[in-house]
User: Which sequence fits this backbone?
């Protein structure tokens, strides 16, 4: 997280110094979702029977009041919740208390054969924050990290 | 004129005397007043920073962290001339030691020790600035039915891993934990009591630690990892300095582990032994100790060497011969208590990346790089046949070679140089030699979506049932990171992946090893460069969850952190005992798995 702050500040400083180029300045607080290794895409085996932890993270100055982050978990036509997976983290909202910058979000994968011709993805998407002052995903047009797409495959 | 001067002097003296008398009469006596109070880190070793009190009337309030307060030095400011006492003892700011475990009273008096004013010093607990779980376990006596023994968690940052037996019931466990004074610990909003509260650990459990005033929180995720066995440190071999490339193998006949290695030449000139340095040694591990089975029995070894055991337990070594020019490959074997040469001049130009496998005592295969091509030598018990591999399309320039095999086949894994063939970036090959001819199981292969086959994190092995397993690294699923991917070659001629990719992100020195236990469990060992000190980690593929396990850390041996390539080696014996070796400071460290 500190690294992200540093990168953000460094980028802001660099962009400020290069104002003539009129590059956009991305220094707003944002929220993102990713795997434990920082990826926004992942693959799980169709035969996996385990719980995997993903993470929702904040990038913002220190705060004193709790921040809520709403998320959705949706799947493609090839998968069914309760059959192929279950969302372990309840409620569709994770709450960040002061001092916390990353919260776990868990999905329990269930062993179930899939039809390779269908959409076998599960998408975790950030849908909003409270207060609503956070950009969803990394600042920038790509909104990287606003969602995490996990594909279930026959490995 | 003279008289006038005298009168001026007399008048001045009289004035001075009068002034002096006047000053003595108007001595300033400051009323007692204490205006500032603090504990400075410079005066108190238990404090990491200064703590300043608030002085309100005669109440002095200061919040300190959870430290020993029985001998603290206070710094205070009083009016000039004031005298300060505690229990009758005169206090010197920044010097006098007092016990602040409970409230104490500072009595401030004027310079005549009169008009005393009592200031009460109240020391309270400061909110923990870094709330954390500092210890976590499942005590055996509180989890007698489920566990029967105490299991201590390993805390790594905000993750706590606990190794539990495969069959343990983890749905109702009582955790014992420690945190700083004043902190509150909750799980899903429910306050936790160490040694009392029961939780279901089937999924990871998040412990929220909140400091006294709620200003700082921290989350600790506890994950229980089913363990197949236990890794234990074995005696380190350091009788002879070991050079990079040491490899451990287990004699298939009697399960005795062997290691062959090149003696390392010390940097210090006076520590060198020209008669022995850079020559081959062999040792075996019997009854918990290392013993020699050959010392300096070869010519000087160049940059590359390898070691194999035939199905009958006959050792063979192949090495780049540093005593000849060009430095080509020599092969030696051990029989009748002595090492002897069975092959010389395997190659016509300098060789490198030398590996070998013995299908039988009279069927030894050497694969190596020569003149930027893959070059092979095959020993039939009496003579060598050398050349390229016809079945290897284009014989592209290799980057690296590995070999594995069993009593029926030898397998060569190689990574091609960048775009060495058909513009494929570091494609890789798996070639099979069945004792007679070569065939390709995979050639110039690059996973779809990957930038290249990683030039670290690769290895090949053959399971006891003859299945070929491959670990490689690629970034097919996440362009930013390379991960290990394990695949196996199926009887129907296809490759299939073993689980998802392994979580660990490959680093530039992640020289990994793959091994398969007799029960078919696949293990991967790799050096974790992201932790300090760097450590060796091992994961296995859990047949129950179809997921790679949490890594078991083999530590960093004796604390001498390895540098560069730790030269991992990994093998299982026929009964399922695993051996991992690596080098640190020219010493051979070993862990065993049972």
Assistant:
């Amino acid at each position: 997280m500190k690294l992200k702050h540093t990168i953000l500040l460094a980028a802001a400083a660099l962009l400020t110094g290069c104002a003539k180029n009129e590059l956009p300045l991305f220094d707003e607080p944002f929220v993102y979702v990713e795997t434990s290794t920082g990826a926004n895409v992942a693959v799980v085996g169709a035969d996996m029977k385990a719980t995997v932890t993903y993470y929702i993270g904040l990038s913002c100055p220190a705060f004193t009041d709790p921040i809520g982050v709403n998320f959705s978990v949706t799947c493609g036509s090839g998968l069914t919740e309760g059959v192929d997976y279950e969302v372990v983290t309840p409620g569709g909202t994770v709450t960040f208390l002061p001092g916390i910058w990353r919260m776990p979000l868990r999905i329990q994968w269930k062993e179930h054969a899939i039809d390779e011709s269908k959409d076998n993805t599960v998408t975790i998407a950030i849908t909003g924050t409270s207060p609503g002052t956070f950009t969803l995903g990394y600042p920038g047009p790509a909104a990287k990290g606003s969602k995490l797409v996990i594909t279930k495959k026959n490995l | 004129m003279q008289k006038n001067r005298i009168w001026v002097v007399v008048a001045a003296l009289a004035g001075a005397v009068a002034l002096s008398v006047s000053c003595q009469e108007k001595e300033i006596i400051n009323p007692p007043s204490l205006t500032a109070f603090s504990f400075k880190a410079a005066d108190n070793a238990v404090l990491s920073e200064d703590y300043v009190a608030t002085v309100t009337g005669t109440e002095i309030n200061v919040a300190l962290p959870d430290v020993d307060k029985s001998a603290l030095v206070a710094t205070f400011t009083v009016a000039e001339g004031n005298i300060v006492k505690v229990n009758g003892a005169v206090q010197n700011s920044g010097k006098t030691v007092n016990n602040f475990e409970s409230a104490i009273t500072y009595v401030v008096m004027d310079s005549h020790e009169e008009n005393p004013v009592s200031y009460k010093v109240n020391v309270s607990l400061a909110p923990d600035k870094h709330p954390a779980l500092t210890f976590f376990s499942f005590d055996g006596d509180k989890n007698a039915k489920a566990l029967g023994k105490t299991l201590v968690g390993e805390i790594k940052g905000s993750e706590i891993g606990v190794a539990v037996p495969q069959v343990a019931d983890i749905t109702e466990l009582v955790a014992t934990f420690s945190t700083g004074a004043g902190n509150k610990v909750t799980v899903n909003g429910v306050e936790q009591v160490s040694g009392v509260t029961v939780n279901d650990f089937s999924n990871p459990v998040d412990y929220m630690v909140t400091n006294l005033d709620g200003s700082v929180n921290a989350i600790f995720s506890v994950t229980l990892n089913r363990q197949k066995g236990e890794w234990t440190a074995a005696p380190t071999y350091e009788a002879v300095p070991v050079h990079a490339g040491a490899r451990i193998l287990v004699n298939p006949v009697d399960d005795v582990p062997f290691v062959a290695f090149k003696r390392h030449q010390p940097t210090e000139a006076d520590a060198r032994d020209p008669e022995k340095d850079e020559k081959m040694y062999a040792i075996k591990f019997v009854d918990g100790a290392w013993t020699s089975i050959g010392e300096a029995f070869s010519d000087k070894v160049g940059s590359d060497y390898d070691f194999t055991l035939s199905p009958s337990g006959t050792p063979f070594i192949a090495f780049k011969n540093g005593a000849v020019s060009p430095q080509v490959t020599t092969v030696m074997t051990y029989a009748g208590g002595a090492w002897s040469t069975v092959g010389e001049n395997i190659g016509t130009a300098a060789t490198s990346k030398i590996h070998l496998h013995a299908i039988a005592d009279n069927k030894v295969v050497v694969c190596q790089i020569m003149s930027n091509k893959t070059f092979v030598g095959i020993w039939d018990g009496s003579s060598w046949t050398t050349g390229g591999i016809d079945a290897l399309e284009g014989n592209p320039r290799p980057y690296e070679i590995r070999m594995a095999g069993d009593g029926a086949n030898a397998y060569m894994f190689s990574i091609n140089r960048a775009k060495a063939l058909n513009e494929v970036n570091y494609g890789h090959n798996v070639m099979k030699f069945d004792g007679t001819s070569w065939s390709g199981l995979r050639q110039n292969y690059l996973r779809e979506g990957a930038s290249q086959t990683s030039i670290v994190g690769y290895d090949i092995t053959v399971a006891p049932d003859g299945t070929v397993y491959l670990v490689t690294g690629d970034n097919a699923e996440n362009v930013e990171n390379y991960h290990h991917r394990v695949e196996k070659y199926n009887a129907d001629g296809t490759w299939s992946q073993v689980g998802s990719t392994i979580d660990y992100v490959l680093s530039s020195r992640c020289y990994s090893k793959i091994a398969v236990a007799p029960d078919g469990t696949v293990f991967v060992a790799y050096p974790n460069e992201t932790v300090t000190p760097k450590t060796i980690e091992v994961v296995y593929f859990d047949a129950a969850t179809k997921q790679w396990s949490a890594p078991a850390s083999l530590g960093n041996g004796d604390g001498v952190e390895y540098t560069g390539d730790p030269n991992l080696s990994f093998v299982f014996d026929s009964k399922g005992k695993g051996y991992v070796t690596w080098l640190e400071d020219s010493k051979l460290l070993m862990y065993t798995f049972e």
